[in-house]
Amino acid sequence: MKNWPNPFIEQRADPFILRHQGAYYFIASVPEYDRLEIRRAADIDGLRSAEPVVVWRKPNSGPMSNLIWAPELHHIDGKWYIYFAAAHTQALDELGMFQHRMYAIECSDADPLTGKWVEKGQIKTPFDTFCLDATTFHHQGKQWYLWAQKSPEIAGNSNIYLAELANPWTIKGEPLMLSKPEFDWECRGFLVNEGPAVITRGNRLFISYSASATDENYCMGLLWIDKDAEMTDTENWHKSPTPVFTTSNENRQYGPGHNSFTQTPDGEDVLVYHARNYTGN
């Protein structure tokens, strides 16, 4: 097992690494929250020094004009997609929450760094509330959409939801709530479940997610299901009552979370996450 240098890349949050056709792609939130940029390299280590290429910038006004958060790059049916959260304003709403919604852009060209990106609009869900941190995965012959959203009927900031996709920017059917903040470690500072990521190992499909405020209390939880079980039956899903990744004072890594998974060329799984080297907000 390789000992990766940490920090691996500085000043980037919500890191996502995609392995595709022998290359690695990195995308993340940037400190200015104003653009989407991609790095590409032949191996994971190469991403550290790879030149970022800006593929989209936020407009000056409109629904995608503020606070570009948590992008992910995916390749679906021969096309590239970036999912990201954006808001029309930096102001908070009447509940004291940011006003993000989820959006998608599409690139039909072979190279996502030089190709043309087209805005596909908002990914709408049954309720029009704060949402973010979407990912997608293929399982049981279907493309699934997994994200965090505020429920009008449940206390807290966000829960984890799952839905099938009709196409890469349109959900199909009624979303299924997989998890809401309920344990103490999910409710420190804020009641949060967000940042889901998917990995399949053995006979199970796992979803990691992040919980609590984004300070030293931020941590990761775990959901799982037997990989052949019906995905839309809540009875088939399981949730760890304890966090699986938390602050390490010894290593000066505080609030680990919002992770993604990738693999080395040898098939070793790699967990990519963000953390701080200081405490507080």
From TrEMBL:
Polar residues bias (residue ranges): 243-252
Record-listed E.C. numbers: 3.2.1.55
Keyword Ligase listed: no
Xref: Pfam families: Glyco_hydro_43
Top-rank taxon, per record: Bacteria
GO MF term list: alpha-L-arabinofuranosidase activity
Region entry Disordered, spans: 239-266
Record's keyword terms, sorted: Glycosidase, Hydrolase, Signal
Gene Ontology terms describing biological process: carbohydrate metabolic process
Family: Belongs to the glycosyl hydrolase 43 family.
Protein known as: Alpha-N-arabinofuranosidase 2
Species name: Kluyvera cryocrescens
